[in-house]
């Protein structure tokens, strides 16, 4: 029996959409800018599984110069606390220096306590008559509301204040501050309040692969990219992991063929259409959800290298230059008419 050889590259997907920047994203970002004078700290949430791709340059531009804590959410879905995971986290911390960086699972009491203690210490280092106000920002569906709810429960023992969901866009407006730390007269602090915000997508994604990564982690709605295409990209990544081909052995033999894989899933799970025909779309969506829940391996989609952030920023600068050149060209065309 020949050994299985996974695909080395994923086929180019030139026709995929490259944007998911919606009206409430722009409105939310505009509102955030007007609030900065009353904000003591910004928590930027990024998805642990896409540490580079979930970076939004709009936040860098709009919130620059503010004190910031970077939190990588959903660590439980991308890490098994292996030496390779810890090395990756060391690299990511270095990217953000001197800003502090934390890696969290909102279901971990230890992780939430670490964030809570950071908020308390930050509040104690400055006096505010109205209490410390923290603005939480990030891409859609990155886990901002789940983090807020966990901090509220741990800090003031109250039920969740923010709605959460499997699809992006649950939070569409900036909420009023939610208390996560009570007033402490001994320390002279007036409490800590967290302000939840709608997720803000990047105006334009530089390449199709980045769009597929963001779709896989749930930053765009599942209707934006064909489920079978997205599942094929997931299968590509699963097969790249050590022993990944064994994670779906209950459905089929190791394969690079997404149709063969999904037909096996359809038969095994009963996701069939009329006449017993496999429902590939339904099976693909189910598999994607299984991975998002951590049932088909825990791994990171981005390649994390020491100079990875620098490369990403150079790409963004190049993209901005091209956009500016394109805009000047259009302006000249208008002037000529």
Automatic annotation (TrEMBL):
Protein location: Mitochondrion inner membrane
GO CC term, one of those recorded: mitochondrial inner membrane
Domain G: 133-239
Biased composition (Basic and acidic residues): 315-326
Binding of GTP, residues: 141-146, 199
BP GO terms, sorted: mitochondrial translation
Bilayer disposition of the protein: Peripheral membrane protein
Residue ranges of the TM segments: none
Location of the region described as Disordered in the Swiss-Prot/TrEMBL record: 315-337
Recorded GO MF terms: GTP binding; GTPase activity
InterPro entries: GTP-bd, GTP-bd_ortho_bundle_sf, GTPase_MTG1, P-loop_NTPase
Keywords linked to the UniProt accession: GTP-binding, Hydrolase, Mitochondrion, Nucleotide-binding
Highest taxon of source: Eukaryota
Its biological purpose: Mitochondrial GTPase involved in assembly of the large ribosomal subunit. Plays a role in expression of the mitochondrial translational machinery.
Family stated for the protein in its record: Belongs to the TRAFAC class YlqF/YawG GTPase family. MTG1 subfamily.
PANTHER family reported for this sequence: MITOCHONDRIAL RIBOSOME-ASSOCIATED GTPASE 1
Full protein name: Mitochondrial GTPase 1
């Amino acid at each position: 029996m020949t050994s299985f050889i996974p695909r080395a590259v994923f086929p180019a997907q030139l026709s995929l959409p490259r944007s998911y920047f919606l009206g409430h994203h722009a409105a939310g970002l505009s509102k955030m800018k007007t609030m900065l004078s009353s904000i003591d700290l910004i928590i930027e949430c990024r998805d642990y599984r896409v540490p580079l791709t979930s970076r939004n340059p709009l936040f860098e531009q709009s919130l620059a110069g503010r004190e910031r804590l970077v939190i990588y959410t959903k660590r439980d879905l991308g890490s098994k606390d292996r030496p390779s995971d810890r090395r990756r986290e060391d690299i990511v911390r270095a990217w953000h220096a001197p800003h502090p960086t934390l890696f969290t699972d909102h279901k971990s009491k230890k992780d939430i306590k670490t964030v809570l203690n950071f908020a308390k210490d930050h509040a104690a280092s400055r006096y505010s008559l109205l209490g410390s106000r923290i603005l939480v920002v990030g891409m859609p569906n990155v886990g901002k509301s789940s983090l807020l709810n966990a901090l509220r429960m741990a800090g003031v023992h109250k039920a969740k204040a923010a709605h959460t969901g499997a699809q992006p866009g649950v939070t569409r407006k900036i909420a009023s501050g939610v208390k996560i730390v009570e007033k402490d007269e001994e320390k002279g602090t007036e409490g800590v309040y967290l302000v939840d915000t709608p997720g803000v997508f990047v105006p334009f994604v530089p390449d199709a692969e980045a769009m597929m990564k963001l779709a896989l982690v749930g930053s765009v709605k599942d209707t934006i990219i064909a489920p079978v295409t997205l599942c094929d990209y997931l299968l590509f990544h699963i097969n790249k992991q050590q022993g990944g081909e064994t994670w779906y052995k209950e459905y089929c033999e190791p394969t690079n063929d997404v149709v063969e894989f999904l037909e096996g899933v359809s038969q095994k799970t009963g996701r069939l259409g009329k006449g017993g025909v496999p429902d590939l779309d339904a099976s693909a969506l189910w598999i994607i959800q299984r991975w998002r829940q951590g049932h088909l391996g825990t791994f990171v989609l981005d390649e994390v290298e020491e100079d990875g952030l620098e490369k990403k920023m150079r790409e963004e600068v190049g993209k901005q230059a091209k956009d500016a050149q394109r805009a000047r060209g259009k302006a000249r065309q208008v002037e000529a008419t």
